[in-house]
């Protein structure tokens, strides 16, 4: 399976009481596809999977498949502390006809590379679907190192990796030593570097509300090979990257951004809380400037 373009880890809209707004979720996926994203991920951290029951996770994956079927790729997240839960999500993804699954390291447990590889291979057996690995040591506490990659590489299903370590040397390692594993950008402020090293896809939370601007960078770099244009677009996007990452308010910013774009997102589930007025104002200003700047670049 080939992963190409912008893959959006979709938010989960909530009502004021924290219940899932399924109508808003469907409307959001429809909007994303109309905007031209190439893939949708259900059950990623941007979708607040960690605050959902297993029943909710399965239900939302099914709903996402019903909406996206035949129109764009759907990847289902399987990350969980318990292997049984990850396997259950993998089995469900296969049952509903998902195109791929997202497999990360189990949070908190801090397994060895061998243990983590065995965990990933068990999830693979449960689904037998194409897999995008998710390397995010900042959240999971461990790195998917060379021993891990060599072990999981025994299965043809491990065909991509979302690299979110922030270590540019990992990009070099993956591009040079593991060219058979498609590299996907998972660190937004390094998107330009990922594309320069051959990445063809970008998993980006900001595309929940700025899909056109993220597609513009992908198109300039990966499709047109115009890195001079890409640098200008990336420069316009950088203030957004800083706002999204500051103070641990990534999901809160994404959800407010969706509402700025005219969608319904609602609040995050506890322990997270929505943005305050100052944070909202800052995000709104950044969005206004970057949209104007990138529109001008695209119009040239």
Molecular structure report:
- The chain is α/β, with parallel strands linked by helices.
- It is built from twelve helices and eight strands.
- It has a single domain (5-299), classed as TIM Barrel.
- It has helices at 22-35, 54-68, 83-96, 113-127, 137-140, 146-152, 168-177, 191-196, 211-223, 227-245, 250-260, 277-299, and strands spanning 5-9, 39-42, 73-77, 100-104, 131-135, 158-163, 182-185, 201-203.
- Strands 1-2-3-4-5-6-7-8 form an eight-stranded parallel barrel, surrounded by six helices.
- Helix 2 (54-68) links the parallel strand 2 (39-42) and strand 3.
- It is globular and about 50 Å long.
- The relative contact order is 0.13.
Taking Cα atoms only, what radius of gyration do you get, to the nearest Å?
Answer: 18 Å
Per DSSP, the total helix count is 12
CATH topology-level name: TIM Barrel
Largest sheet: 8 strands, parallel, barrel
Major sheet: order of its strands? 1-2-3-4-5-6-7-8
Roughly what is the average pLDDT, rounded to an integer?
97
| Tally of domains | 1
Helix content: 40-55%
């Amino acid at each position: 399976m080939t992963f190409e373009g912008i893959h959006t880890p979709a938010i989960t809209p909530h009502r004021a009481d924290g219940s899932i707004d399924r109508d808003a979720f469907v409307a959001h996926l429809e909007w994303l596809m109309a905007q031209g994203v190439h893939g949708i991920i259900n059950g990623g951290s941007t979708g607040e999977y960690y605050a959902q029951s297993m029943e909710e996770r399965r239900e939302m994956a099914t709903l996402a498949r019903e909406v996206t079927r035949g129109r764009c790729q759907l990847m289902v997240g399987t990350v969980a502390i318990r292997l049984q839960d990850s396997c259950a999500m993998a089995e469900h993804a296969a049952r509903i006809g998902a195109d791929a699954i997202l497999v990360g390291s189990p949070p908190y447990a801090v397994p060895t590379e061998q243990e983590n590889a065995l965990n990933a291979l068990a999830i693979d057996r449960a689904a037998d679907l194409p897999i995008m690995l998710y390397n995010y040591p900042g959240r999971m506490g461990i790195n998917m190192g060379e021993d891990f990659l060599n072990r999981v590489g025994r299965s043809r299903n491990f065909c991509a990796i979302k690299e979110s370590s922030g270590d540019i040397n990992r990009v070099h390692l993956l591009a040079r030593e593991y060219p058979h594993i498609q590299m996907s950008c998972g660190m937004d402020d390094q998107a330009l570097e990922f594309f320069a090293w051959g990445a063809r896809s970008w998993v980006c939370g900001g595309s929940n509300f700025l899909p056109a601007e993220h597609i513009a960078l992908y198109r300039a770099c990966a499709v047109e090979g115009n890195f001079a244009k890409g640098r200008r677009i990336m420069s316009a996007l950088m203030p957004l990257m800083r706002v999204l990452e500051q103070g641990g308010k990534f999901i809160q910013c994404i959800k407010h951004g969706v509402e700025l774009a005219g969608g319904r997102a609602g609040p995050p589930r506890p322990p997270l809380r929505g943005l305050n007025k100052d944070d909202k104002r800052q995000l709104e200003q950044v969005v206004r400037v970057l949209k104007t700047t990138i529109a001008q670049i695209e119009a040239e």
